Amino acid sequence: MGLTDLLRERPIVQAPMAGGAATPELVAAVTEAGGTGFLAAGYLGPDTLATRIRAVRDSGVAAFGVNVFVPGPICAPDAPAPYMPLLETEAKRYEVSVGEPVHDDDAWDAKIDLLAEAAVPVVSFTFGCPEAGVLERLRRVGSATVVTVTTVEEARLAVERGADGVCAQGVEAGGHRGSFAATGDEHGNRSADRSLWELLPDVVDAVDVPVIAAGGLMTGADVAGVLQRGAAAAQLGTAFLRCHESGAHPEHKAALADPSYTETTLTRAFTGRLARGLVNRFVSEHPEAPRAYPEIHHMTKPLRAAAAQAGDPDGMALWAGTGFRKAMDAPAAEIMERLRHEAGEAGVRV
Questions:
Q1: Residues 97 and 134 occupy one common structural domain
Q2: Which reaction does it catalyse (predicted)?
Q3: Whose CB has fewer CB within 10 Å in the chain, the N or C terminal residue?
Q4: Pairing status of strand 264-267 against strand 144-149
C-alpha cells in the first residue's frame, strides 16, 4: 500500500514521541483503532528499536511507522562550556553529576541498516532530510518515506530528494522543532516559527506529495480543519500523552492536567535545540541555553533522570504542544473514537 492510500484509510497519525511515550502498546492501540501509529527511534539503541518493531508486529499490527533523527553538524567545541556552571548547580540539587557534552549521530547508520531490513510501511525523519540514496534504499524495500518540515523551502528540498511525503510542523507542536540542521529556527530563520494554519496551505501548494499536518492538534475539529485545508492526514502527539498506553512519566502526565502549569514555550534548556514544553522551574531559570545539540541533551540527561526519579516535574522536560490542557486520561481507543466523532460533527469522516 502506498503512502497516499495508507493515509486515506488512516488519516489520524499518532506522533512519534521520542523519550518513551510512543510505546509499542500505544502504536498498536492507535493502529488497531484505525489510525497510523509511530515508534520513535530517537535515543534508542538499534537492538531496542528492533525489539520494539517486533513487539508491534507480534501484536498483529501491520500499518505503522518509525521515526528517525537525522544527525546534525558538530557544534563549536566551546559552545556548551558557558552552560556547565549552571548545570553543576542543578546537579548538586539532585546529587548527581552533569553528563559529558558528547556529540553522536544516534546510531544513524545502524538504524538505517535495521530499517532497510525491517521494511516497515513508513519511515519518517526529523531534524533534516537524508540524502537521496537513503530514501531510495528504503523505498526499494517497500517503505514510504516522510520528512518533517517547518518551511516551504524544506518541503521542496525533501521532495527533490525523493521523499514520498512531508509532515508540515507548525510552531504549536510539542517537543523538538523539526527544522533542518542547516536552516530553520536553530539558525535564525524566523520563517520556521509559522503557525501550522499559516504553513500548511503554503506547503500543500508547493509540493505534489501527501502532506501530514502537525502542531497543536488536539480535537476532531482540529483534524477536520487540516484535512479541509488540503492535508492528507493529521498528526497528534500531546493528545495521546496522557492515554493509558503512553509511556510518558507519571509526573509528566500529571503536569498536563496540573493547573499550576499554565503555558508552554520554546526552550533549549534541556537539549540545546528548540523544543516546546511546559514552563517549569528549569525552563524559567535557564532561558539562555546554548545551541548545541545533542551535547546539551547528554549534559542534562542525568539531571532529568534524577528529577524524574525524585518525582520532581520542575526538573523534567515536560514536552507538550500548545493545546496540552485538552489531553485526556483515557485508553487510546477511546481518544481515537472521540476524534472520529468530533471530526464527523465538523463534516469530515475519518
A1: no
A2: 3 propionate 3-nitronate + 3 O2 + H2O = 3 3-oxopropanoate + 2 nitrate + nitrite + H2O2 + 3 H(+)
A3: N
A4: unpaired
